[in-house]
Write a structure and sequence with these properties.
The protein is mainly alpha-helical. Helix content is 70%, strand content 4%. The protein contains 16 helices and 5 strands.
Length: 424
């Protein structure tokens, strides 16, 4: 669970338009190209009405279930912290760690055992949310053995990176008692930048096979679109996401010299040229508008706020309950379950803020994509394909709190407004 809590920040920076569908393209009548007869609301409604009641009910149920998962993720963190702190598991693994005399080795042993037991405690819940639920809604192509294998790889990588990060933070806590959270934020930020930089080259290829897009009209069209908008892209990558999911997707990932634009094989197989052009123009928009760097600045602010809250609440809780939990002070490694819980609490309450940061950049990329690709119907139809796993027509407050991308309704409406304004 801590893996998800720590690396949730990374999702916000990538700024990708993730699309998925197992259905065919919506059969939507093409609106008249006559400016006088074209009606934005009517054209938008035609797209929305292309979903059958059964399709809409299924997608709504899947996405709304995600609201509860946000809550249950936090509840799971509370249960894990309770087992460690109140049932004495933290004291027991600390005794094992103290058998060595070197402080950093003690901390490393505790961290490893903490991750191991946290993984085992949360694993049944993870099976449901990561495997069973995805199959229940027909979104996964993975067998249990394949899913389990990737879960083990992902957890191992998380243990490696998060373990190093936690060790560094607790070293800072011992050296800089009062202002550790400022320096800790800096280490977290540097670590995040490092992961974003190496991600496309060294981490993503562990799970999928990335290769240059095959030569042909599609690649030429994407590269031409990039050149026309000042994007210095010499190659476009495709990856085999179909071995895991039915979702169509594309993304911009990396930083600096590792930035790359990628699209998956589902997108290539399931979408029309106009839809693919609309998606790739959106992704190029993230690059042109410098979203990776802008969101990194937003992330820095969020991280500093999070560490300040962790510092404040942990000091209060340790002062009142530390003796019962076996925690001597803030820098005691046995405070790790409390650290994770407080950080998870911050992530929980910050969910609407984080979603809004992401949704704003996605809206900007949508606008750029429409102007660059000039494919309003392609953009509208591919937005409708989100409906297989994303609620297409939420309420305003619902969208503000839970949506990290604009809703399908807003995207289709945006495309039809652009179409109306640019008809000849």
């Amino acid at each position: 669970m801590f893996r998800k809590t720590v690396f949730l920040f990374l999702i916000l920076i990538i700024g990708c338009m993730s699309l998925a569908s197992g259905q065919t393209e919506p059969k939507v009548p093409i609106a008249s190209e006559n400016t006088e007869s074209f009606d934005v609301d009517s054209a938008t409604k035609k797209y929305l009405d292309s979903l059958t009641p059964e399709q809409k009910s299924k997608s709504d149920a899947y996405f709304e279930g995600g609201y509860w998962i946000i809550l249950w993720d936090f509840v799971a963190e509370v249960i894990i912290a309770w087992i460690f702190l109140y049932l004495g598991l933290s004291k027991w693994i600390k005794k094992l760690a103290l058998k060595t005399n070197r402080k950093n080795i003690q901390n490393l042993i505790y961290i490893l055992l903490y991750f191991l037991f946290s993984f085992l405690i949360a694993f049944p819940y993870r099976i449901y949310t990561g495997f069973m639920r995805e199959h229940q809604y027909g979104l996964s192509n993975m067998t249990f053995s394949k899913w389990f294998s990737e879960e083990m790889i992902s957890s191992s990588l998380s243990l490696l990176f998060a373990g190093i990060l936690i060790m560094l933070i607790y070293m800072i806590m011992r050296k800089i008692i009062n202002n550790w959270w400022i320096w800790g934020s800096g280490v977290f930020i540097i670590f995040t930048i490092f992961l974003l930089f190496i991600g496309p080259v060294y981490i993503s290829p562990i799970f999928n096979d990335y290769k240059p897009l095959e030569e042909g009209p599609l690649k030429e069209q994407i590269l031409s679109l990039a050149k026309a908008n000042g994007v210095p892209v010499t190659n476009v990558y495709q990856f085999d996401a179909s071995k895991q999911s039915k979702r169509i997707s594309a993304n911009v990932s990396g930083l600096g010299s590792t930035i790359r634009v990628s699209l998956n094989d589902n997108l290539i197989r399931q979408c029309t040229p106009a839809e693919i052009k609309a998606v790739m123009a959106h992704e190029l928009g993230h690059y042109v508008l410098n979203h990776m760097y802008k969101m990194l600045i937003d992330l820095i602010i969020v991280i500093i706020a999070g560490f300040a809250l962790v510092n404040f609440l942990m000091k209060k809780l340790i002062a009142s309950h530390g003796s019962g939990w076996g925690i001597k002070d803030l820098s005691d490694i046995s405070s790790l379950p409390l650290f994770v819980l407080v950080f998870a609490f911050f992530m929980f309450i910050a969910t609407p803020v984080l979603n809004n940061i992401s949704r704003i950049t996605e809206t900007e990329a949508d606008i750029f994509g429409l102007n660059a690709a000039r494919e309003p119907d392609g953009f509208a139809s591919v937005s409708m394909k989100l409906s297989e796993y994303r609620k297409i027509d939420p309420g305003n407050l619902e969208e503000i709190i839970f949506f990290d991308h604009p809703s399908g309704r807003k995207r289709v409406s945006m495309a039809m407004k652009w179409k109306a304004q640019n008809l000849k």
